[in-house]
């Protein structure tokens, strides 16, 4: 009898010990799992923060580079304007600005030159904030853009694709300029401002930069500072 009781108590204690050991092992596993989860989460967060910081720094660097490029281009353009201000442009044609009409009209206007460099025009201008038009635009709206100080680049079927591509890039980068085809013009490539016009054979002609520098919002502008947005957009 006594031996049986002792054996039963031993078995019960062994079971309790095994259960407690299992519970300790389970708690240990849970602690390890929590630790692994925390470490993993911390690593993920650290990685995200690090990646976010990298992106932010790279974005700031790119922004600084763009600002530096813009500042350099503005400085270059300002230098060109200063140099061009008192420079005569070979081959340039000029018209007396005082004799060019400036009335706003609704009737059709016949201009004595192609493309026109001034005269009566529609009350709404053609958008000229670096706008490139693939189709011909109405003269009466383009002339109003010239009145606001824009340079209008035009071309006909004789123009070379490489020249057109280069001039498109220049116009798109230049506020107060626009570009469109004028099939009837004599020159392959022509640049017009209010009362001024130049024909060139190539976009690489140095007179192109001089013309832009001198006449984009230049002294010939009847209405300097007037808008080149909010008008007609083809």
From TrEMBL:
InterPro entries, per database record: DUF3105
Signal peptide: none
Region (Disordered): 1-30
Any Pfam family matching the protein: DUF3105
Basic and acidic residues bias: start-end ranges: 13-29
Record's compositionally biased regions (Low complexity): 1-12
UniProtKB keywords: Coiled coil, Membrane, Transmembrane, Transmembrane helix
Coiled coil region boundaries: 57-85
Residues passing through the membrane, by range: 36-57
Domain of life: Bacteria
Record's protein name: DUF3105 domain-containing protein
Annotated source species: Streptomyces luteolus
Lineage, opening ranks: Bacteria, Bacillati, Actinomycetota, Actinomycetes, Kitasatosporales
